[in-house]
Amino acid sequence: MTAIAHDTAGSAALHERARRSLPMGVTGDGRYSAPYPISFARAQGKWMHDVDGNAYVDYHGGFGTAVLGYAHPEVDEAVMSATREVGAFVGVPHPYEVALAERLCAVLPGAERVALCGGGGTDAIYHCVRLARAATGRPKLIKIEGGYHGWHGDVGASTRPSLNAAGDARHPATVPNSDGILPAVLAEVVVAPANDAEALEALFRAHADQIAGVLVEPVLYSAGCIEIDREFLDTARRLCDRDGALLIFDEVMSGFRNGLSGAGGRAGVVPDLGAYGKAVANGYMLSFLAGRAEVMTLLAPEGPVFYSGTFNGHPLSVAAALKTLDVRERDEVAPRLWHLGDRVAAGINAARDQLGVEAVCQAYGSVFCIYFGTRQVRDYRDYARTAGPDINALDDALRAFLRERGVYVHKRHVNRCFIGAQHDDADADHLVELVAEFLGAHREALAR
Ligand code: PMP
């Protein structure tokens, strides 16, 4: 546990107070960090200002939602304007949702229908899993070790299992990620290692005629930043086609983060269903699933799979999403995001080579992760093998070091960072310099 050195007394005091009315003083597991989380007062563009008046260049981006930066004036104005028209919410169909659905079908490969949800990626994933089971009449879901797909029990396994509990790397155990999930639910969850096409084939053989779907993040951002290779995605597509299972891409984090067609679109692999959220409305709450008409029309009231939710397709979020798409297309945001992510990773890895230390920055588009004690992370085990107390302490020390110098990085279990359209080359180069300084200062701890 690393103490926070610059003045964050206001955050400390607010946390003390918050602990008396909120679980651990926060509104979700990923918001806490020891010794207390930094509480923010204002955010604008790439800047985040904490309650003590410290300003940070921010690489948290609202858990990846703020792809255009915080408080984007045009997006916010679209929301204000919708508020003036409809207030907050009415709950009957409205023109905005049709306009958005048409645009989403146009940009997302394989999207013939979309189903808007209430806001959380969890909702969209839940529908995808249920649809896969309904469409196939089969029970089992294959998920990737280290992948996170929301907080509900159907996918509540092996997000961050201990290596002892996780067992055989090629046939991982299904390890619950929470108490309170029925064992019978998790008995239908089969866990596969990332980037191991042969292991996936073996799992299909072992559970022949039982697999409803394969759920994959095409970039495993849940474990930092691990690109799923083309061979694995192609194999998953082929096995699903062969056995009549559905391929589901969880693009909640990767979708709308870089290009508009998602990581699946970039890889050229089309899923049967995709789940999206986070960046689509630049921080306003919106999630949805999209996919083949034949499957999507199983949703009620067209089909027998229940689909509901009071705030589904909330008009204010839908207005935000439409404006976000406009701005992204007009300003050609995607190439800049890729450029900045590549620049950060190349700079950090060059510094690492010069110093001869054991660390790596992996980037895919605008998301990057700095891992210590290794030079390549291709699956959850590569990360977990290094993730002992020493490496955790280094992760924490890097975060504290950056904060003291006005850069905010948020840790979930790794230091994963999000670049937004408001960052520029100077930000990227400054970050590289700081990380290089940190690596130099911890040369011994990171010796090869
Ligand atoms: N899938 C992925 C890949 C995610 O990153 C997340 C959220 N971090 C979810 C699903 C769940 O989304 P939400 O928290 O919005 O319900």
Tell me what the structure shows.
The structure is a single chain. This protein has 2 domains: 9-71 and 333-441, Aspartate Aminotransferase, domain 1; 73-330, Aspartate Aminotransferase, domain 2. It contains 16 helices and 14 strands. It has helices at residues 9-18, 61-64, 73-86, 95-107, 121-136, 163-166, 183-186, 197-206, 230-243, 262-267, 293-296, 315-331, 333-355, 380-386, 389-404, 425-441; strands at 40-44, 47-50, 55-58, 113-116, 140-144, 189-192, 211-216, 246-251, 273-276, 288-291, 359-364, 367-372, 407-408, 415-418. The strands form 3 sheets. The protein has a 7-stranded mixed beta sheet with strand order 4-10-9-8-7-5-6, with helices on both faces. A 4-stranded mixed beta sheet has the order 1-2-3-13. A hairpin with a 2-residue loop joins β1 and β2. α3 runs antiparallel to α12 and α13 runs parallel beside α16 (425-441). It is globular, with a radius of gyration of 22 Å. The mean pLDDT is 96. Bound molecules: 4'-deoxy-4'-aminopyridoxal-5'-phosphate. The site of 4'-deoxy-4'-aminopyridoxal-5'-phosphate has 13 residues, from α5.
